[in-house]
Amino acid sequence: MDSRLDRMIARLTTQRRALERAAEEIRGLPGPVLEIGLGKGRTYSHLRKLFPERQIVAFDRDLHAPADAAPTGADLVLGDFRETLPALSGRMPWVPAALAHADFGSEDRARDAAQAGWLAGLIDPLMAPGGLVVSDRPLQAPRWTALPFETPEWPYFIWRVG
Question: How far is CA 42 from each of CA 53, 58, 73, 103, 151, rounded to the nearest angstrom?
Answer without folding.
Answer: 18, 12, 19, 11, 20
